[in-house]
From TrEMBL:
Limits of the Myosin motor domain: 1-307
Protein name in UniProt: MYO1B protein
Any single GO CC term annotated in Swiss-Prot or TrEMBL for this entry: cytoplasm
Pfam families in the record: Myosin_head
Renumbered residue ranges of the record's region Actin-binding: 184-206
Record GO biological process: actin filament organization; actin filament-based movement; endocytosis
Family statement: Belongs to the TRAFAC class myosin-kinesin ATPase superfamily. Myosin family.
UniProt GO MF annotations: actin filament binding; ATP binding; calmodulin binding; microfilament motor activity
Transmembrane segments: none
Keywords: Actin-binding, ATP-binding, Calmodulin-binding, Motor protein, Myosin, Nucleotide-binding, Repeat
Keyword Membrane: no
Name of the gene this protein is made from: Myo1b
Xref: Gene3D superfamilies: 1.20.5.4820, 1.20.58.530, Kinesin motor domain (3.40.850.10)
Length: 348
């Protein structure tokens, strides 16, 4: 119930992760249909970039204003930080404060004077400004590093290399908020170079009991995890997509015209393959470089047919091998019998 600077930082990181989830699953998928020339009706979804900008904008973001308060001369308190937020973020649709200049919040008595509220992707969260400035300053950082460097234990000394007197930096240490913002940016850059898979976990109840589902709790998690938008896009779109070359290579044994070799463009081979298998036209679409399959059951059918065909091919290979082996053994025995007979008749 009491959220301070630590929870604010955690929620900021969650917003960034949600943003990359939206980019990679909702935005990117719909853009892929357009790139591939697939007929598609755009599905609207909420993009939380506006919330991330409220927190991390280099000029008007909450973290930037917090750093500015920590660095400016004069008397700086949590209340002066909140006043600055009220002035700059007053008209932002995802920021609320009791003393906000925006008139629609002036009668909001649910907010104490020392708090502000952010409308996150997952819902509204109220933060206590008490301790924001001190926790962001991290004033003990330099002195603590120097003290740890003087420790006799080698491990502790290696954990604080910045405490080395030869490497002392007289510049003001970076604030906790700016350090975490840089770390999150590095994490996002790293994730964007990968192909991540998401596993969304639902907590069914607060008691950790089996077979007990709290409907309100589950529905709340489904909403803030963005599963509704994801399901809408998935159901309207295609469950599976693959480039023509690997698709043809995987399923070419299901069609006599494409097995064992197909001489021609991979797309033409896939078209012949799907026509031969009698798959309904509404179950797939041909893109510029990929085949799109709408329902998982079509893919399951292809995999089942492939499994049966592999078993048939394995049986055929085993049959031919056993025939060759027996024929080779028979010819060897026949040759040996002729040799033995010829030698026997010579001495008979």
């Amino acid at each position: 119930q009491d959220n301070s600077f630590e929870q604010f930082i955690i929620n900021y990181c969650n917003e960034k992760l949600q943003q990359i989830f939206i980019d990679l699953t909702l935005k990117e998928e719909q853009e892929e249909y357009i790139r591939e020339g697939i007929e598609w009706t755009h599905i609207e979804y909420f993009n939380n970039a506006i919330i991330c900008d409220l927190i991390e904008n280099s000029q008007t973001g909450i973290l930037a204003m917090l750093d500015e308060e920590c660095l400016r001369p004069g008397t700086v308190t949590d209340d002066t930080f909140l006043e600055k937020l009220n002035q700059i973020c007053a008209k932002h649709q995802h920021f609320e404060s009791r003393m906000s200049k925006c008139s629609r919040f002036l009668s909001d008595t649910s907010l104490p004077h020392s708090c502000f509220r952010i409308q996150h992707y997952a819902g509204k969260v109220m933060y206590q400004v008490e301790g924001f400035v001190d926790k962001n300053n991290d004033l003990l950082y330099r002195d603590l590093s120097q003290a740890m460097w003087k420790a006799t234990h080698s491990l502790i000394k290696t954990l604080f290399p910045e405490g080395n007197p030869d490497k002392i930096n007289l510049k003001r240490p970076p604030t906790a908020g700016s350090q975490l913002k840089a770390s999150v940016a590095t994490l996002m850059k790293n994730l964007q170079t990968k192909n991540p898979n998401y596993i969304r976990c639902i907590k069914p109840n607060e008691k950790k009991a089996a077979n007990v589902f709290n409907e309100a709790l589950v529905c709340h998690q489904i909403r803030y995890l963005g599963l509704l938008e994801n399901v809408r896009v998935r159901r309207a779109g295609y469950a599976f997509r693959q480039a023509y070359e690997p698709c043809l290579e995987r399923y070419k044994m299901l069609c006599k015209q494409t097995w064992p070799h197909w001489n021609g463009p991979a797309r033409a081979g896939v078209e012949v393959l799907f026509k031969e298998l009698g798959i309904p036209e509404e179950e797939f679409s041909f893109g510029r470089s990929k085949i799109f399959i709408r329902n998982p059951r079509t893919l399951f059918r292809l995999e089942e047919l492939r499994k049966q065909r592999l078993e048939e091919l394995a049986t055929l290979i085993a049959k031919i091998y056993r025939g060759w082996k027996c024929r080779t053994r028979f010819l060897l025995m026949k040759k040996s019998q002729i040799v033995i007979s010829s030698w026997y008749r010579r001495y008979a």
